[in-house]
Specification:
Shape: rod-shaped
Structural class: alpha+beta
Strand content: 5-15%
Strand order of the largest sheet: 2-1-3-7-6-5-4
Number of strands: 7
Largest sheet: 7 strands, mixed
Distance between the termini: 61 Å
Length: 342
């Protein structure tokens, strides 16, 4: 609750990675050169005239954000959104820079989804993009490889194209996470009659799909804001790439909506199967009860303690009684079978 009581512009990291060490990973590049190195302070960026991508890992070190405020004049309210991990995905455009907040989705080795708070600060005048991660590991390894090997277009365009590439990677991995959930949902349809396991998996998938939707949904509005004619973030040359990213995001949201409905249908099927099984159980209990009603009557009748009960003196009466009960039970079962009640 501390972040809600602090005054505006207070830089308090609200995530769980409080022991993550600060790391500044810098990639400086242009058409002919590429260099990746670790720097120790933001002042080292001043010596780089090329396009720059600085990846900062570890949001618990507040001094780096104070340096950003002093060196580049980044608004403290904007930096507050970077360290408050509950902040929604959004984009804010200022006169000299823009700030984008994303939810980066990764599929972990154990198959679970990890949703991490990721921020992207773009300073066009400095030819600089800064990404802020909570912990090590991200979804940008393919972009780094393309930059290192000079494949693709990242090295040959400005930082607005790098901004597109980073956002596209985020959407691609959100789509990968969706396909991961889709496979589990398809398997769950086959296992829906495995009662307890199916129910636990169903609730888990519904939660993961909802989290994925929460992470993906704001990206459409963010991309549309970037594509507006008065946008100061990207050039007209790069705008059509964002149209492609928007198409991917819209398709992903449609797929998520479809599979949320499929999960609801699976849940309805699960409940129906439980009700059908309960009906079958109740029907069998009713049939057995119906069979034992006349047998219980006969048992009670011949078990009365009268002194003068001539039938009890019949030789072999017990055998006749047992045979009669079995005949009644078999006759009732045949009748139920004839009526398709069994």
């Amino acid at each position: 609750m501390k972040q809600y009581m602090s005054p505006p512009g207070t830089l308090n990291y609200t995530g769980v990675y409080t022991d993550e060490p600060l790391e500044l990973d810098l990639i400086a590049y242009d058409r002919d050169h590429y260099e990746r190195k670790t720097i120790h302070a933001l002042k080292d960026l001043r010596h780089e005239a090329k396009c720059k991508w600085l990846n900062i890992t570890g949001l618990n070190d507040i001094e780096i954000f104070k340096d950003l405020h002093r060196q580049y004049g980044i608004d403290l309210l904007a930096l507050e959104d970077v360290v408050q991990v509950s902040q929604r995905s959004k984009i804010e455009v200022f006169s000299e820079h823009s700030l984008s907040i994303f939810k980066m989705v990764k599929v972990q080795a154990d198959g679970k989804l990890l949703i991490e708070h990721l921020s992207l600060l773009m300073l066009p005048a400095e030819k600089l993009i800064i990404t802020f991660q909570e912990t090590q590991g991200d979804v940008f390894w393919d972009i780094r490889k393309r930059m290192e090997t000079a494949t693709g277009q990242v090295r040959f365009k400005g930082i607005d194209y790098l901004y597109y590439a980073l956002m596209d990677a985020i959407i691609d991995h959100q789509t990968e996470a969706f396909y991961h959930l889709q496979l589990q949902i398809d398997n769950l349809e086959k296992e829906v009659f495995d009662r307890q396991k199916s129910l636990e998996s169903l609730y888990s998938l519904r939660r993961d799909l909802l989290n994925l939707k929460t992470a993906c949904q704001p990206l459409g509005d963010m991309i549309e804001a970037i594509m507006r004619e008065n946008s100061k973030i990207v050039s007209l040359e790069v705008t059509h790439y964002f149209k492609d990213a928007l198409d991917h995001q819209i398709h992903l949201m449609n797929q998520i909506s479809n599979y949320r409905e499929i999960i609801s249908n699976i849940y309805d099927l699960y409940q129906s199967s439980l009700n059908n099984d309960m009906n079958q159980i109740m029907k069998m209990l009713t049939i057995f009860s119906a069979i034992f009603i006349p047998l219980s009557f006969l048992t009670g009748f011949f078990g009365m303690n009268f002194k003068d009960f001539p039938v009890l003196n019949v030789v072999g009466g017990v055998h006749f009684f047992v045979l009669g009960c079995l005949t009644i039970a078999v006759a009732m079962l045949l009748w139920f079978k004839h009526k398709d009640w069994l």
